[in-house]
Amino acid sequence: MVASLHQTYPLKYQRRRPEMSLLYRTVESYWPTFVQEQKKVGKVLPLFIQDEFTKFLECGIPEYGFIRTYCYHCRHSGVVPFSCKKRGFCPSCCAKRMNNEAAHLVDVVLPEIPYRQWVLSFPYKLRFLMARNQELTNAALKIFHHTIGSFQKKKAKKNGLGKVQTGAVTFIQRFGSALNLNIHFHTLFPDGVFLESDDGYVFCRQSSPSLEELTQLAAKIQKKVLRCVEKIGLNEDFQESFDEEGLGELASMSVANKSGFGERAGKGIRRFGAKNIEVDPEGRDPYSANVGGFSLNARVWIAGSDRKKLERLIRYMARGPLAMERLTESFPNQLLYKMKSPWRDGTTHVSFSPLDFIARLVALIPPPRMNMIRYSGCFAPNFKDRKSIIKNKSAQKKCAEICNSDLPEKVKHERLRWAEMLKRVFEIDVTICPKCSGRMEQIAVIKDKTVAKKIIESLGEVTTFRPLEVVADRGPPEPWAFQDDFDQRDSTW
């Protein structure tokens, strides 16, 4: 019976091969050239940027270390390579972090109540100032939380409710749909308030915000954030301190969607649009308001009982900047990136030279010790009644399963393990032998590169691939390969 269950399991683990991807080959071929180009103009990239790219080139490559697994039934031996564990642009590690955070929030933190996603975007100038100034980012986020929380409490007071509490979980995103630097907030607020009573906290749902209310909230946020900018003393001279790290020009180009290398240096990136595409130029949305470049959106709503939809939404909020399936090599020495949804002018694709593409990745990497996930209000760890608010049936069930398991005490307090995450999200069981469907056991952790190379050679795991040829940066050939399917858009920004 057990064997039949193993045989019918949807998928079995197979090692991913990042070295075969276009992203890996592009970084491997052009990263040294990019570093040299920066040195020519007297700029040295910070160590955390260099470490991000170095570790990415080692992520998922068995030659740099792995966990060795073994099946005692059929004597099959396998390897599970180490990951880089970075949070900049690595698709694998960003996906792991995304799924882990989503599972943790749904299983442990968020009670079974309705939620609404609030998205706050900023004008171009503020995006540049917030890119590296954590003080301004923290202040803007605090203003955002306080404004929406006060709005919910005032609405509760009008409805005759007494002392109430609210909270939020925010994901700070640094990227736009075109891989441009775009600091904005994705925040999950309860669609209501927690009423304090003698028996604890009772959730009370509130009505959806109107367009007038969203406009007023956006205006309040704009006023307070601009006042905060003046108080901190940020201005145009802030770019000079940016340039000390060699990131000022890269950040400004990314925010403005401009090219920094080759014949198109200082010009807008090449944009393409599909023919006969239907896009609302006005952007009419009753759940979206824009005041002076401050855009506030509250369209997405999740029912309290729909936990799977909530988890999908959190994955979207916690996702990485790069989607591998949307990156292609359009023509020699040019990369084409497809956006998830068209822009208002009909643009569906953007084109980069390899050096411009690497510059985009550099600008998207968050600085060290910057927390990209923030908890506030009743969801904050230091809130005194947090346990009584977040307590729910799913969390109790999950905690009971962990406490009653035979796991070590240290593991019980950790988040979802890697093997459990693969099984939950992708229906892949790494513990099942791919040959006999028996159980794979961990037998060794190999960190020495020399030993790792000898083992993978004996197992036939040596990977061979042909990297991209490093060529001089130049413009795309004419005529355009997409002339029949795409219209080139105005490249000015």
Structure description:
The protein is of the alpha+beta class. 38% of the residues lie in helices and 20% in strands. It is built from 16 helices and 20 strands. Strands 4, 6, 7, 11, 12, 13 and 17 form a 7-stranded antiparallel β-sheet that branches. The protein has a 5-stranded antiparallel β-sheet with strand order 14-15-16-10-20. Strands 3-2-19 form a 3-stranded antiparallel β-sheet. A hairpin with a 5-residue loop joins β6 (167-175) and β7 (181-190). The protein has 2 domains: 2-87 and 392-459, no CATH class; 111-275 and 283-389, no CATH class. The protein is globular, with a radius of gyration of 25 Å. The N and C termini lie far apart (63 Å).
Question: Which terms would index this structure?
Answer:
493 residues; alpha+beta; 2 domains; 7-stranded antiparallel beta sheet; 5-stranded antiparallel beta sheet; 16 helices; 20 strands; 38% helix; globular; disordered C terminus
